[in-house]
Amino acid sequence: MKVIQVGLLGIGTVGAGVFQVLQRNQEEIQRRAGTAIEIRAVAARNLARAQSIVAATPAGAHVKVTADAREIIRDPEIDIVVELIGGYDTARTLVLEAIAAGKHVVTANKALLAVHGAEIFAAARAQGVIVAFEAAVAGGIPIIKALREGLTANRIQWIAGIINGTTNFILSEMRDKGLDFDVVLQEAQRLGYAEADPTFDIEGIDAAHKATIMAAIAYGIPVQFDKAYTEGITQLAAQDIRYAEQLGYRIKLLGISKRTAHRDASGKPVGGVELRVHPTLIPAKRLIANVEGAMNAVVVNGDAVGTTLYYGKGAGAEPTASAVVADLVDIVRLHAADPQHHVPYLAFQHDALSNLPVLPMSEVVTSYYLRLRVADQAGVLAQVTRILADADISIDALLQREADEVNGATPGLNGEGTQAVPQTDLIMLTHEAREGTMNDVLAKLQALPTVLAPIVRIRKEELT
């Protein structure tokens, strides 16, 4: 076979890692692929930086550096285009142009695929080319290949993943050091774990992109990011992490998808797929609850294999480059194959995708952690439990703890130094309830004059 020529669109951290891995493991990669893989050209806005990265590699003298991405797409010698630009619009345009030019595409762009995946996969199918995207989810963890190929005999029941290293680092530090979110976020930014603008990470958007892609592969449904429920970690307080520990749980930001069937509030059968990202209580004894720092982990439950765990580095130059190069090797192996025999992008044949709906969050059934700051007086607990009982929501565990602070003042005193209403925290774990029902209950609880602060609600998953 001829040497496979690759063009890189973008050469930041991951692009530099791709160069390093290809050079260092060149012999091993060629033995596996059956032919050599070489980078022929790189497109970058910062030419000086790109040239310095390229020049530092042994093969750099033979690599063209250009500011024009379309020059790479037009090059007839280039077989595979690797998109490492990120973002939605420019990346979408260039990927579609590369496909139209008959190029195979490798991308690490989860946002692009979560939002425009249906269009991109349809274009690739029409052209008979491959779009590979292992690096788009969980960095160096081969979770896409596991879902699409290794677990292909299974009916996937649920997936739960720590798929954003920034938020996992923040939550780990909050738990270990007892610090509040804002303090740990600043430390994460100082250490380089969080961007200057960390919105995509801390609001759960990045994790939702990845969860959307995994759900599509697991259940054979189109990518539907717009239907994913997304809630970040910005409102988490150190005291909730501490209370969760006392109850035997840890809090992680999870991307969850679940095949489900139950009855809604009217008793009508509801079937579909849950797709949600939010802070979640997990039993401390679960392996995934003990994933710390910036590491990622994904738990997959299949009907035949049971529960499996995939753990590793979810970001970084070489972990992500590992996934990019693995995709390059896969494409080389399939380069001469009939397009009809390519592994389907979303695991299922394109004409066999399911119309299984993504459920609205109001129809999700789960259990809950609730924290209520209430007046410390007789009858309050009875009021709270009565409202829950009226909605058929039962309590699994209950703690009462002295409030840490009273409106920012010394406990027992109001802002003027006079006696304040004594306050206490009620912390409850509930059994399963429908989200819509819980929303109604929380509205009633919040309206009680004895409830003195916004109620904290965190969903809980046993992951059994």
From TrEMBL:
<feature type="binding site">
    <location>
        <position position="195"/>
    </location>
    <ligand>
        <name>L-homoserine</name>
    </ligand>
</feature>
<dbReference type="GO" id="GO:0004412">
    <property type="term" value="F:homoserine dehydrogenase activity"/>
</dbReference>
<keyword id="KW-0791">Threonine biosynthesis</keyword>
<dbReference type="InterPro" id="IPR005106">
    <property type="entry name" value="Asp/hSer_DH_NAD-bd"/>
</dbReference>
<keyword id="KW-0486">Methionine biosynthesis</keyword>
<comment type="pathway">
    <text>Amino-acid biosynthesis; L-methionine biosynthesis via de novo pathway; L-homoserine from L-aspartate: step 3/3.</text>
</comment>
<dbReference type="GO" id="GO:0009086">
    <property type="term" value="P:methionine biosynthetic process"/>
</dbReference>
<dbReference type="InterPro" id="IPR045865">
    <property type="entry name" value="ACT-like_dom_sf"/>
</dbReference>
<comment type="pathway">
    <text>Amino-acid biosynthesis; L-threonine biosynthesis; L-threonine from L-aspartate: step 3/5.</text>
</comment>
<dbReference type="InterPro" id="IPR019811">
    <property type="entry name" value="HDH_CS"/>
</dbReference>
<dbReference type="GO" id="GO:0009088">
    <property type="term" value="P:threonine biosynthetic process"/>
</dbReference>
<dbReference type="GO" id="GO:0050661">
    <property type="term" value="F:NADP binding"/>
</dbReference>
<dbReference type="InterPro" id="IPR001342">
    <property type="entry name" value="HDH_cat"/>
</dbReference>
<dbReference type="Pfam" id="PF03447">
    <property type="entry name" value="NAD_binding_3"/>
</dbReference>
<dbReference type="Pfam" id="PF01842">
    <property type="entry name" value="ACT"/>
</dbReference>
<protein>
    <recommendedName>
        <fullName>Homoserine dehydrogenase</fullName>
        <ecNumber>1.1.1.3</ecNumber>
    </recommendedName>
</protein>
<feature type="binding site">
    <location>
        <position position="110"/>
    </location>
    <ligand>
        <name>NADPH</name>
    </ligand>
</feature>
<comment type="similarity">
    <text>Belongs to the homoserine dehydrogenase family.</text>
</comment>
<feature type="binding site">
    <location>
        <begin position="9"/>
        <end position="16"/>
    </location>
    <ligand>
        <name>NADP(+)</name>
    </ligand>
</feature>
<dbReference type="InterPro" id="IPR036291">
    <property type="entry name" value="NAD(P)-bd_dom_sf"/>
</dbReference>
<dbReference type="InterPro" id="IPR002912">
    <property type="entry name" value="ACT_dom"/>
</dbReference>
<keyword id="KW-0560">Oxidoreductase</keyword>
<dbReference type="Pfam" id="PF00742">
    <property type="entry name" value="Homoserine_dh"/>
</dbReference>
<dbReference type="InterPro" id="IPR016204">
    <property type="entry name" value="HDH"/>
</dbReference>
<feature type="active site" description="Proton donor">
    <location>
        <position position="210"/>
    </location>
</feature>
<feature type="domain" description="ACT">
    <location>
        <begin position="369"/>
        <end position="459"/>
    </location>
</feature>
<keyword id="KW-0028">Amino-acid biosynthesis</keyword>
<keyword id="KW-0521">NADP</keyword>
